[in-house]
Amino acid sequence: MTVDPIANRALIRQSPTYSMAEDDAAFIKSPELRPMRVAMEMMKAEAVQQKENIVATIVVFGGTRLIQRARADVMLAEAREALQRSPGNTQLQAVAQLAARRVELSRYYDEALKFGRIVAADCASGKCPEFVITTGGGPGAMEAASRGAREAGGRCMGLNITLPHEQEPNPWISPELCLQFHYFAIRKINFLVRARALVAFPGGYGTMDELFETLTLIQTGVMERVPVVLFGSTWWRRIINFEALVEDGLIAPQDVGLFTYADTAEEAWKDIREFYAARGMVIEGSPLHPWVRKPTAH
Going from the N-terminus, what domains does the chain have, and what CATH number goes with each? Predict the structure, then answer.
């Protein structure tokens, strides 16, 4: 076989095998490198939070489909107008019913915004150490809490996730604190590793997944207990019958005490403060260092 050294050298330089491993995107994204990608994702998130001195967070979970009242009113007006033109259309009837329900649920967007604002304002005024509002970085309740924190002069962190359909981080996240994850598991670890409280607004599968994983970790003792607040007592009691789980012996009676209900932003913040006050950890002026969890093997 005759080899042209000059041409062959050019082929060598063009071959993906010749590129440095760190520059080889196809190699880095290969199945064999999945363990390394998982580790890198965790390490990057930790490095960012250490650099930005993120010590304690308050995590806000909640549905992406919660919207502001003004927008909900517009959607309802449009749905009713369409239904008036075709009153017998069952599909339009369903749309109008859903739009009306969205108006009712819009209060949770407003309360999430108020909650982020209250926490950030108290932290900025020196009434408490800096709690960084942290969300999944998406729209809905996450956007509202982020917006409230930023409008009050605080920082907020967004832990975005890559999804098959297009999605973007909400525009209220502190730019230096917006992280993007590929793996849901690593994202959920970062929700909890610095969490000093969690507030769950109404939401769908994602909210339920995050809430129940948190409750499971606390229930089993893998994670030290932090206040968990379910926002919207009527909504949560309608959606999940925790008492039935106790009646059927599937959870212990004390497991229902792992969370509280709140119906206003002020009440949610009060629940968090009272949780720590009951344990001798007064928020006002207290350093956060005594709250840091003891190292574990997990």
Answer: 54-68+106-291 (3.40.50.450)
Q: Which long-range contacts (CB under 8 A, 24 or more apart) does 101-105 make?
A: 102/65, 102/67, 102/72, 102/75, 102/76, 103/69, 103/72, 103/73, 103/76, 105/66, 105/72, 105/202
User: How far, in Å, CA of 62 to CA of 85, rounded?
Assistant: 35
| pLDDT tens, residue order, the chain (298 aa) | 788 899 999 999 989 889 899 888 999 999 999 999 999 999 999 999 999 999 999 999 999 999 999 999 999 999 999 989 998 899 999 999 999 999 999 999 999 999 999 999 998 887 777 899 999 999 999 999 999 999 999 999 999 999 888 678 999 999 999 999 999 999 999 999 999 999 999 999 999 999 999 999 999 999 999 999 999 999 999 999 999 999 999 999 999 999 999 999 999 999 999 998 888 776 654 444 334 344 344 4
C-alpha–C-alpha distance, residues 67 and 73, integer Å: 10
pTM over 0.85: yes
- Residue 252: φ, ψ to 5°: -80, 155
What is d(CA 213, CA 247) in angstroms, rounded to the nearest whole number? 22
CB 68 within 8 A of CB 123: no
User: How far apart (Å, rounded) are the C-alpha atoms in residues 257 and 240?
Assistant: 15
Report the Cα–Cα distance between both ends of the chain, in Å, rounded.
58
